[in-house]
Amino acid sequence: MAKAWLSLGANIGDPPAQLADAIARLGAHPHIAVTRQSSVIRTAPWGKTDQPDFANMAAEVETALSPVDLLHVCLDIERDMGRVRHEVWGPRLIDIDIIAYERIEMQTGRLTLPHPHAHERDFVLSPLGEISPATADWIRALHD
To answer: Angle, nearest 10°, between helix axes 133-142 and 122-131?
Structure first.
């Protein structure tokens, strides 16, 4: 089983409940086990700032899925929870991003690992550092 780290966020509806629902859905998948999760933090929006604050958290999972297959599961969960992509960095019911998958570095048309903006976002690195300081440090070191 491979380890992967996810960043979850929401800022419309009931964000804490939606984060909990997303974690439960991830854990219910037959090829994913949620092994650690951070506390939920409240953060100001990033990119598009004229929207409600976000609830953000990180989760560590063990999975038998490939990185791209894990991405598809995350996108399916977002869709099943009602996420509609209207605008980049806009308000959302749920957002699930793969931050890192093992120590794989890859770039495809669908997925870049580690996440290309993780090192710029405290709302990603802070919760990630809570559950996996070594992974947060690795991401920072890639951009030093």
So the answer is: 140
Known active-site residue 53? no
For the chain, give the longest Cα–Cα distance.
41
Among residues 36, 95, 103, 140, the one annotated as catalytic is: 95
The CATH number of residue 57's host domain is 3.30.70.560
Please give the radius of gyration of the chain, using alpha carbons only, rounded to the nearest integer.
14
Q: What is the mean pLDDT of residues 108-136?
A: 88
Active site (annotated) includes residue 97: yes
From 25, 42, 69, 97, active-site residue: 97
Catalytic annotation present for 140:
no
- Give 75-103 pLDDT, tens digit per residue: 999 999 987 766 666 678 899 999 999 99
In the residue annotation, 36 being an active-site residue is answered as no
Q: Residue 95 sits in which domain range?
A: 2-142
The answer to pTM > 0.90 is yes
